[in-house]
Amino acid sequence: MWQEESDLSLSIAQIVQKLKGSSLYAQLERQAWASLQRTDIKLESLKEDIKRFFKTSGWEKKLQNAVYSELSVFPLPSHPAVPPEHLKEPLVYMRKAQGSWEKRILKSLNSMCTELSIPLARKRPVGDQKELLNKWNEMGTDEPDLSHFRPVYAPKDFLEVLINLRNPNYENGDSPSFRTHLGLIQIPLKVKDIPELKELFVELGLTTGQLGIDDSTQVPPELFENEHVRIGQKVLAEQDSAAAQQYVRQGSPTALRAELWALILNISSQPEDILYYEQLKTNVIQHDLLVDSLIYKDVKLTASNDDYYFVFEDYLYQVLLCFSRDTSVLGHFAYNSASPPRSYIRGKLGIEEYAVFYPPNGVIPFHGFSMYVAPLCFLYNEPSKLYQIFREMYVRFFFRLHSISSHPSGIVSLCLLFETLLQTYLPQLFYHLREIGAQPLRISFKWMVRAFSGYLATDQLLLLWDRILGYNSLEILAVLAAAVFAFRAVNLMEVTSLAAAEAVLADLSTLKVMPLLQIFLFATVT
Amino acid sequence: MMAGKVKWVTDIEKSVLINNFEKRGWVQVTESEDWNFYWMSVQTIRNVFSVETGYRLSDDQIVNHFPNHYELTRKDLMVKNIKRYRKELEKEGSPLAEKDENGKYLYLDFVPVTYMLPADYNLFVEEFRKSPSSTWIMKPCGKAQGKGIFLINKLSQIKKWSRDSKTSSFVSQSTKEAYVISLYISNPLLIGGRKFDLRLYVLVSTYRPLRCYMYKLGFCRFCTVKYTPSTSELDNMFVHLTNVAIQKHGEDYNHIHGGKWTVSNLRLYLESTRGKEVTGKLFDEIHWIIVQSLKAVAPVMNNDKHCFECYGYDIIIDDKLKPWLIEVNASPSLTSSTANDRILKYNLINDTLNIAVPNGEIPDCKWNKSPPKEVLGNYEVLYDEELAQGDGAERELRSRSGQSLGPRGIRSRDSGRSFLTTWK
What terms describe the molecular function in GO for this protein (chain B) (predicted)? Predict the structure, then answer.
């Protein structure tokens, strides 16, 4: 933590620099100037008076939330001379692996391009532009011929890459011993065990009230729910991000969730945000990108067939097409081990001045990508707000689920955490599944990559994502995956093939997430 | 009494029915034999109770329709009965019949303005001229599944129903040609930009005293095409009608989810985007209008003790979160459009039979029709007149602030009971 004074001043300097470029800074400046009109601001004590004014008018709180947001998202360098690659990913071999994975993806994209003779990007003819504008709210009724498009990659392709990941500095000996990890991931990263997880997720303990458990029909609301709702309303009235984050660890009441998440993510719909979204929309109208077809295909394959999310198909296009064109997303590559793919203007291959990021936001969608957005449609029905929330969720959390890094919330750590939990606390089950050729990770990987979207019932999913926001970590996904296996252990012990194991775990829609987590963490004999 | 297997007959060949009979070990017989349970279509019920056939049901025979169910399930009669009910309440000075300053009923305005054609043609024209830009929906009285329905926004479109029209080929007052015309809800609540309606199942075991149950697993039916109130789309029935029978033929119909959402999804969405209070109020109002519609027809219903009935209620919610009763179906479709659907309908029949034919044994229609709580399954008691009247406490119809609408139902969630309403 803050071990040295120099650490602290370095971090402060960094945050100040970041915030100076934000609209909040401009607003604060304006407010400060306007406050000079007030009678309680005196020239002799100008600085103190303005500070007091900011406090009472709620502007200090906004600043506090912005600082908190920066702290939550941006990893702060521990040393001023740290090179930027280390912020992305400190381990060299991980960086290399991510680099080669990206090369493969880009190659796949380019070859699809060549095969189908479709440019990566082109300007839309004016007639098409008009048509698209008219159809903006119902792009779902469009039926473009997508038969030749295939997703650039699916989660299982990514899993193969992770399975083959090796640390060249680590030698675990020729003969497998009891120390050899029996799972698929062969990387020595530090992951938490149950005692450490209990410490991290202390609010999920048996003696603390939870939404998802203590609001069920059998429990009288006076015992927990009413008070919890009251506190939630208070948190919203105070507009305090940090308090909101702490609060949702016990779950968010449905009526307050949309506002609480916006507060935690520090999203407020300012006019300039709405304008920015409209601008992105214009970009979509004017230019046609190859990734648009990939997005269409993904939505048609996944969300359109989902019992919960099919209703919001059109919103998904409106969010994802704009997302692809949003260059502000490039900012998150500073702390993402991934780097945006580069392409070159036709005929200028290799010439740096003609290099562009493709797609403009640097994120190539894969099969199931649209499912990150879908659950949010239950909370936000205004497209620009929905867009902002999704974008922030992506640059804080979701990107970690499909890039190779050593971060504790990165997918590699999550996989390792899942396998280690299973191997340590359900060794018999783990061994049995491994023996029949049903490595558990092969089944649970897709759940974690999608943060369980499309696998759980929506109300349960939202309770799960409450905790992701509350703890600012994705580790809960691995814990839930292990808890699901624990829950269905009896049936799983009886299967004799991977297919049968898949069948036992095919339908998670009836699961209640919080009891599973609580039992696994706090009520299992370890 | 011979203890034997229940003998059943049906003239509706649907697996969700037959599987339920067979799993109870019931024995299939034909109509001409001695039967205990007959799940009949609405055509058959007409014959069974018609004066000519002179059918007399014995104590150990049960059927799934009330003889004159059409008082509720025919669009014109439903409206007629509700209008009569309202007038009666008004006459006796009941607070339920209170009106606002515009003359609209505060608590009983839940059916869109409706007229019978050709009988009320002139009344309709007067109303139409008051708001000439409105859209109206024409529905044939006797048909179902969205057949024969169309929208109009010009008087010329319904010229032939005009009584004094020279081109009218309409001579007889045959009920087959009768239509109702209702004000079209042009501001429906949209979700994801799409229009939807609610299908709720309500089981009535007796009308006097009124005892009815609401099936917890109702669903929303979404149109596959984006809703647009524009006049050019009036003819596109895929935009306007939510009947699955019509939607199924649209290009975008999906056979996995069938364009359906559970009512619990609707509740989650509304609570998340609109708030808990207004959502609770909406659902209270929905329960209220169902009970009022049943109370309206209760006096004219032939409360034959051999009968029970499972209705399909169609409700539309407008963008002010007010529910409107569109129609009640006597024979809700037992066809399944998706796998989920099949499971739902199978369970619906199962729970219905558990209530209507206690213990799956040969029925005695003299029983008190009060099943124990354990057999309700996915049904909840919507209204029990006997219980409501036996309850001495007077219930206020309005909250102190004068805001709420009549329904002060105790939501089953809060009290852990399975009662949805306790107002009289």
Answer: ATP binding; tubulin binding; tubulin-glutamic acid ligase activity
